[in-house]
């Protein structure tokens, strides 16, 4: 029988094999182990990884203490309610404002559901009424306004409601505390409803005002209205929070409470708004412009020169700007926040003050865009600095990426 030759591997372990056998039948350490061990090193697997080659250098202390990157769980989501509670805990908002914002998000979910089924449940077409601006109201204009008002009333934290669809601001008798002033456009771009294109809702929230704490027993209705109008007509710089809800291929609730802009997408599986766009920053420039060029001949010559500049080839690729016009302010602003560019709704010969309302369209959107790093002007001054003297006051607006607004100003000067 051939001699067996010991083969030392380490100071504590020796493997033996037969020099004449074609198979290794006795490959085992000489000492017995009750704990799983490595057949090469003879050491417990739990305490040291198996080394393929005897005498290989062990892992360095630095490598051994490296913290592994934690993978995000696919089920780990943050919804709007959780986000609002975190903002409340951090002291950015109070409990009353949290409730108001939650009630607005509920109204948006209800409106989104109605829009998706509008053709099926016969909610398309005109209502047969005209609002205070002289515009024909769609069925969903009226219904959405009621949904917003009901959700805000039921919150018990809203003192005054001002809507595009209401003649005057409405004092909420059901208020328990908070007394926040909420201004809103329940359906922006309602002309798009019947053809299933982009629509949206816009809202802004102002702080309570003692001038509008109406005494229903002693004040006449006219006095109450007067107090509410004084309270509601505040510049956009006083806004505590603002946002919009986009109704399109996705339902996106975008909000700012003064510390950046955040977007939440409605997950139909859960019925919750989930954080999908955290701390949105508008690009400094963008090659997209959005103007209703059907009014081109009605605009000022300086503005016409600016539009002609946009149409000329230029930029790094020698191409003109791309023109996009949705007919819905919410859709225009949402695209601009993500891609950059400029949106304009200027005054013209037929609309000396522009077409959009300052209080519940231009001011909330300007607040959002500025929070994201953009700019918003009326051609002369900052939108948020304008002091409204009427609830349904209109204003021209140019809003978008800071570099694009600066170029516009150079043409308007």
Could you explain the architecture of this structure?
The protein is α+β, with helices and mostly antiparallel strands and 413 residues long. 27% of the residues lie in helices and 21% in strands. The protein contains nine helices and 19 strands. The chain has an eight-stranded mixed β-sheet with strand order 6-5-7-8-9-10-11-12, with helices on both faces. A five-stranded mixed β-sheet has the order 14-13-15-19-17, sandwiched between helices. Strand 10 and strand 11 form a beta hairpin. The longest helix has 22 residues. The chain is globular and about 55 Å long. The N and C termini lie far apart (106 Å).
Topology, element by element:
Blueprint: E1 4-8, E2 14-18, H1 61-64, H2 80-89, H3 95-116, E3 126-130, E4 136-138, H4 139-155, E5 158-163, E6 170-171, E7 180-188, E8 199-206, H5 221-232, E9 241-247, E10 251-256, E11 262-267, E12 272-277, E13 288-290, H6 301-311, E14 322-323, H7 329-339, E15 342-345, E16 356-357, H8 358-371, E17 375-377, E18 394-395, E19 397-400, H9 402-412
Helix pairs in contact: 2-3, 3-4
């Amino acid at each position: 029988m051939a001699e067996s030759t010991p083969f030392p591997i380490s100071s504590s372990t020796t493997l033996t094999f037969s020099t004449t056998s074609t198979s290794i039948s006795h490959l085992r350490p000489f000492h017995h182990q009750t704990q799983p061990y490595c057949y090469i090193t003879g050491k417990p697997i739990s305490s040291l990884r198996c080394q393929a080659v005897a005498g290989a250098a062990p892992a360095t202390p630095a490598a051994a203490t490296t913290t592994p990157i934690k993978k995000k769980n696919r089920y780990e989501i943050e919804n709007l309610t959780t986000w609002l509670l975190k903002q409340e805990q951090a002291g950015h908002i109070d409990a009353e404002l949290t409730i108001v914002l939650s009630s607005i998000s509920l109204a948006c979910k209800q409106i989104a559901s109605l829009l998706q089924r509008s053709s099926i449940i016969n909610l398309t077409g005109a209502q047969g009424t005209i609002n205070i601006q002289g515009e024909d109201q769609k069925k969903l204009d009226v219904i959405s306004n009621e949904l917003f008002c009901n959700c805000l009333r039921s919150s018990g934290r809203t003192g005054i409601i001002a809507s595009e669809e209401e003649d005057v601001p409405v004092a909420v008798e059901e208020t328990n505390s908070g007394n926040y002033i909420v201004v809103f456009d329940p359906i922006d771009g309602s002309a798009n409803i019947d053809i299933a294109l982009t629509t949206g809702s816009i809202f802004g929230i102002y702080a309570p005002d003692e001038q509008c704490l109406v005494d229903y027993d002693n004040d006449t209705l006219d006095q109450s209205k007067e107090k509410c109008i004084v309270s509601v007509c505040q510049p956009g710089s006083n806004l505590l929070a603002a946002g919009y809800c986009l109704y399109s291929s996705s339902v996106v609730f975008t909000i700012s409470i003064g510390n950046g802009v955040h977007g939440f997408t409605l997950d139909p599986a859960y019925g919750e708004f989930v954080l999908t766009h955290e701390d949105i920053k508008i690009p400094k420039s963008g090659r997209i412009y959005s103007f209703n060029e059907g009014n081109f001949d009605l605009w000022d010559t300086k503005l016409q020169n600016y539009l002609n500049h946009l149409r000329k080839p230029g930029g790094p690729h020698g191409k003109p700007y791309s023109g996009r016009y949705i007919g819905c302010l919410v859709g225009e602003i949402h695209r601009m926040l993500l891609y950059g560019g400029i949106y304009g709704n200027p005054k013209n010969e037929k609309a000396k003050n522009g077409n959009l309302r300052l209080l519940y369209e231009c001011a909330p959107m300007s607040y959002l865009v500025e929070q994201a790093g953009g700019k918003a002007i009326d051609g002369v001054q900052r939108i948020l600095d304008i002091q409204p003297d009427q609830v349904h006051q209109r204003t021209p607006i140019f809003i978008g990426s800071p570099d694009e607004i600066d170029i516009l100003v150079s043409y308007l000067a």
